[in-house]
Design goal:
This protein is of the alpha/beta class and 401 residues long. The protein has helices spanning 5-9, 49-62, 105-117, 122-128, 141-146, 155-161, 223-239, 292-307, 330-336, 355-377; strands at 68-74, 80-86, 91-97, 131-136, 174-175, 179-180, 183-184, 190-191, 244-250, 255-256, 265-268, 317-319, 340-346, 395-396. The protein has a single domain, classed as Aminopeptidase (3-Layer(aba) Sandwich). The protein is 29% helix and 15% strand. Helix 8 crosses helix 10. Residues 37-401 form the Peptidase M14 domain.
């Protein structure tokens, strides 16, 4: 079945979007970071948890069964973590947003996509016969409500839940001192949830695996990462595989390598070394499921779509840092388990941009996501040469003079 790409894409709505860290999301957490200007703008243009709940339930009610909303789990503070499911096809996509609570634009883009996918047009119905899409629009609601990066769980809470860790050092991704992005973690400690994933989806925390490190697996000690894992495993049980996993993040202010052009967003397909290579020997057991070529093709779908708009705000797309070894991220763990993976890193931070730029960035995310969904649905993703991914320009921290 051939789907008309531009017609479906043009039905997407637009809301606000924005940005995150002064260094890459996956940079070492204790690395010195350049000064950024926070709270120049409020976050009122974004979606809070109450608004998310209301919007999802309204979409479900109006969709005549197309959108199915469920509570997949709760945050540490007891806020519901939702999934919104559309489609009945056997090609499965899991799209996750706001695992860092100050990276809010993906949530807006997801809600816009859900509105478009629930329009019950003939074309949309045909598309949804090919794919099943599960959105997790706000993975870390505690952090979202506080506009911070980390969750609200303490190390004492972890030890209460896992007594076997009573003698272990706190995990490396736990912050309980200092100020990060104008947030006082001494008074409000918490974990970077996106380092709490493990390629072994049945992993049980063991004291000898702590404190761990950036290039080592996580532990599934936070309720937020557990919820994502449980959704992923349930889809594996239902379909045999989760074909695509997309994670929506933000980064700092970057430039297209070799230019002075600010990056609209960075993409990436690579979070662990190839398990069949010497560099990836630690992951050899996943060699049969890891599919880097498919991940590269998925990233090309988004890149090519945004490039198709010519010289505009949408064309400044580059590759996020390559050569990464981050099995503790959702992207790394799910890639090893057989999913094609795509990272979206929108520039900036929620407090740094005005409404106009939020809208421009949001539209970029929506168009990239819609291209991935459609390319998987109609099979055109298989026609792309994975090696073309290597021609996408890299992201640079400083502009070229």
């Amino acid at each position: 079945m051939v789907l008309l790409k531009k017609n479906w894409t043009s039905t997407l709505g637009v809301l606000g979007l924005c940005t995150a860290l002064a260094m890459p999301v996956y940079a070492v957490e204790n690395e010195a970071k350049p000064e950024t200007h926070h709270h120049d703008y409020g976050i009122s243009g974004f979606i809070d948890h109450g608004e998310l709940t209301k919007t999802l339930l309204q979409l479900e009610a109006k969709s005549k069964g197309t959108v199915q909303v469920e509570v997949a789990g709760q945050s540490f503070n007891g806020l519901d973590i939702y999934t919104a499911r559309v489609g009945t096809g056997d090609k499965v996509l899991l799209i996750q947003s706001e695992i860092h609570g100050n990276e809010k634009t993906g949530t807006v883009a997801v809600l816009n996509l859900l509105k478009s996918l629930s329009n019950n047009s003939k074309q949309t119905k045909e598309l949804l016969e090919e794919v099943t899409i599960v959105f997790m629009p706000m993975m870390n609601p505690d952090a979202s409500e506080a506009d911070k990066r980390r969750n609200s769980m303490t190390w004492s809470d972890v030890v209460d839940a896992y007594p076997q860790l009573s003698g272990a050092s706190p995990s490396w991704n736990y912050f309980d001192s200092g100020v990060s992005q104008s947030y006082d973690y001494a008074a409000n400690p918490g974990f970077d949830v996106n380092r709490d994933f493990n390629p072994d989806l049945d992993y049980v925390p063991e004291a000898e695996d702590f404190p761990g490190a950036s290039n080592q697996p996580g532990w599934f000690i936070t309720p937020e990462s557990q919820t994502s894992r449980d959704v992923y495993k349930s889809l594996q049980d239902e379909f045999g595989n989760v074909d695509v996993f997309v994670d929506l993040h933000h980064q700092g202010m970057y430039y297209v390598d070799g230019t002075s052009d600010p990056v609209t967003l960075s993409l990436s397909a690579q979070f662990v070394p190839d398990p069949s290579s010497p560099e990836g020997a630690d992951y050899a057991e996943y060699a049969d499921t890891y599919d880097y070529d498919f991940s590269r093709q998925l990233n090309l779908l988004a890149y090519n779509e945004l490039q198709s708009y010519g010289d505009s705000k949408f064309t400044n797309v580059s590759l996020y840092s390559q050569g990464l070894d981050l099995p503790g991220t959702a992207l790394g763990s799910y890639a090893l388990n057989g999913s094609g993976t795509v990272l979206f890193e929108v520039r900036g931070q929620t407090q740094m941009m005005g409404q106009k730029e939020k809208g421009q960035l949001s539209k970029s995310v929506e168009r990239g996501l819609s291209a991935i969904i459609e390319g998987v649905a109609d099979g055109s993703v298989a026609e792309l040469d994975p090696e073309d991914y290597e021609d996408i320009p890299l992201t640079a921290y400083r502009p070229t003079n």
